Amino acid sequence: MCDLYWLTDEQMARLEPFFPKSHGKPRVDDRGVLGGIIFVNRNVLRWRVAPREYGPAKTLYNRWKRWGEKGAIIAMMDGRSARGAERKTIMIDATYLKANRTALSL
């Protein structure tokens, strides 16, 4: 598979407050899961074809769904993770969106 996407320690530190707290058994590493979610969405892939280094595909999907419902994904991508003077806006590049040729109506 092509290059894997990993967040830096600085990025993880800024995003840490937005991760929902764990209840019960230990979770799969948040860094790997978030990297996997970004990788799958960036490359327009199915969850089941995500590289194993990110964790189980079912975990990636379940976290994406749960975090999305709780607003954590939006909060992370909205740039609210930066504090004070170091506030930065995170933009999503539309060049990663791909159209399916079967969607064309002739």
From TrEMBL:
Q: Name one Pfam family in it.
A: DUF4096
The UniProt record lists the Insertion element IS402-like domain at 7-73
The name of this protein is: Transposase
Organism, per UniProt? Sphingobium boeckii
